[in-house]
Design goal:
Blueprint: H1 5-24, H2 29-36, H3 40-47, H4 55-64, H5 69-73
Helix pairs in contact: 2-3, 2-4
Length: about 80
């Protein structure tokens, strides 16, 4: 499925937020993967904006950072 430019930009912005939070926590992608229950290659593709995550996986990532969905998604 091809995404529109706004969709692609949103996925990149989301991925950048995940990367920023991960680096602030001083975690590797592998550490975030372990904490979230997701595979490390999946984390990498999220950070590159290549994945359109399911809501349940967004919750897993937010929980790994100890955040609620609303706080995690913030002003996206």
């Amino acid at each position: 499925m091809a995404y529109t430019k706004p969709d692609t930009a949103f996925l990149r912005e989301f991925g950048q937020r995940v990367r920023k939070l991960r680096k602030a926590a001083k975690w590797t992608q592998e550490e975030l993967a372990e904490r979230s229950g997701l595979h490390h290659t999946y984390i990498g593709s999220i950070e590159r904006g290549e994945r359109n995550l399911a809501l349940l996986n967004i919750r897993k990532v937010a929980n790994a950072f100890g955040r609620t969905l609303s706080k995690f998604l913030g002003d996206l």
